[in-house]
Design a protein that fits this description.
Blueprint lengths: L1 H25 L3 H28 L12 H30 L1 H8 L5 H27 L6 E9 L10 E5 L10 H13 L4 E5 L10 H8 L8 E4 L2 H5 L3 H10 L2 E3 L3 E7 L2 E7 L10 H8 L6 E5 L6 H6 L4 E4 L28 E6 L11 E6 L17 E9 L1
Parallel strand pairs: 1-12, 2-3, 3-4, 4-5, 7-8, 8-9, 9-11
Antiparallel strand pairs: 2-12, 6-7, 10-11
Helix pairs in contact: 1-2, 1-3, 2-3, 3-5, 6-7, 7-9
């Protein structure tokens, strides 16, 4: 969010200067000019306050309830994202007018075509307003509509007992200002309706406060799966110093938290190993320890829960069949709906969303043909700003099958 504001503040100055030039050229009464400019300045200060609350003002707050109103925060984020697009359109319009020879001839003409000029100005105005419309859609509509995506995961040499085994993944819940207990409850009900064999929760349960743990745990306690609900820790609960409290709360409600640990579940006439590690950067991850714990009772297939997906190459070398991760929210804002569509996440990691495969360097059965699979979910809620475009929240329903 701090990086977002560092980009946003110069853009607000640019938009204000554009407005200042327009008012100076089009409005004659000095009092009206000053009124418009002072009102615009007051509006920008008011609208930017909710965005600055968490990184700058939030540290001075006493208690979690001292936050800007939810509606004002939503409007602020709509303005923040929309103003970036608006500034880009206005900048390109100005550049085009100066660089295009045709536009220069119109300006220099003794009898300019007013109809054509008005058409260009109206088109530019509509294009400048479009980012605000798109941003409003991302905040008010798409962020609130989740997808239930069904996938089949091939696993080499899978037995009949595990073929057809189903998992549901929920990741990046971020319970807090933008994910209320009621909203989270809708995800829990939808996950339970899928009647999965196992539910995997892959980190970032809270947005940034230990006060958010209790309501989050209370709702997640309603999750039901035949072989249990399992979780790993993400970076946000560690940032909030709430990982211990969260672990205890989840465990007390029947959700097994795997922190560098693994267990082996009996499934029919075979076993399934489920492992989990701490966050790769904020925690103290130890994949070797988790693998050793899971191997005590053995497991025909191994599933690793890791909040960040960058563990995947190491997991493949360790012989893990399936890695479930999150963290990047699919990018939140993408050019298209396909998992490989361009987003900011694509510049941060090679594993932004969807499926990836690597050869296993250490296969338990002594074969070098088996492959490991990584799945990165888009997440339940948002991080930073409450906008999703071409990247709806996701409940992932995964079915194992013999490759």
């Amino acid at each position: 969010m701090t990086l977002f504001l560092s980009v946003l503040l110069p853009i607000q100055l640019y938009l204000f200067l554009r407005l200042h030039g327009y008012v100076r050229d089009r409005i004659e009464p000095p009092l009206l000019r000053r009124t418009i400019l002072l009102s615009a300045a007051a509006f920008l200060i008011l609208i930017l306050t909710p965005l600055a609350w968490q990184p700058f003002l939030g540290r001075f707050a006493v208690g979690a309830n001292l936050r800007p109103p939810h509606a004002l925060s939503n409007v602020a984020h709509i303005w923040g994202i929309g103003s970036i697009g608006c500034a880009a359109v206005l900048f390109m319009y100005s550049f085009f007018r100066r660089a295009n020879p045709f536009c220069r001839r119109i300006r220099q003409s003794t009898q300019p075509d007013r109809g054509r000029r008005q058409f260009l100005q109206r088109s530019a105005g509509m294009a400048a307003a479009a980012p605000f419309v798109l941003s409003g859609y991302g905040v008010a509509v798409e962020r609130r509509r989740f997808d239930i995506d069904r996938f089949t995961v091939p696993v080499d040499g899978l037995s009949g007992a595990l073929s057809g085994f189903t998992l549901v993944q929920l990741t990046d819940i971020h319970a807090g200002p933008f994910m209320t207990a009621e909203e989270l409850g809708a995800f829990v009900e939808a996950a339970n309706r899928l009647e999965p064999d196992l539910i995997a929760l892959t980190g970032d349960f809270v947005a940034g406060s230990a006060a958010e743990v209790a309501p989050c745990v209370q709702v997640l306690a309603g999750l039901k799966a035949s072989y249990g609900v399992f979780a790993c820790i993400g970076n946000h609960e560690i940032y909030a110093k709430a990982d211990g409290l969260l672990t205890c709360g989840l465990e007390e409600n029947g959700i097994r938290v795997l922190r560098n640990h693994g267990i082996s579940l009996p499934v029919g006439n075979t076993r399934l190993a489920v492992l989990g590690i701490d966050d790769l950067r904020s925690g103290r991850p130890d994949l070797g320890r988790a693998v050793d714990a899971a191997q005590k009772d053995g497991g025909e297939a191994q599933i690793l829960l890791s909040h960040r997906p960058e563990i995947f190459p190491r997991a493949a070398r360790a012989g893990i069949d399936l890695v479930l991760s999150g963290h990047y929210h699919g990018g939140q804002i993408k050019l298209g709906r396909h998992p490989e569509s361009l987003s900011v996440a694509r510049f941060l990691t090679p594993y932004a969303e969807g499926f990836f495969q690597l050869p296993r360097a250490a296969a338990p059965r002594g074969t070098d043909k088996r492959r490991s699979t990584l799945f990165i979910g888009r997440g339940v809620d948002i991080s930073g700003f409450p906008v999703r475009i071409n990247c709806a929240p996701q409940i992932a329903h995964l079915t194992l099958k013999k490759a």
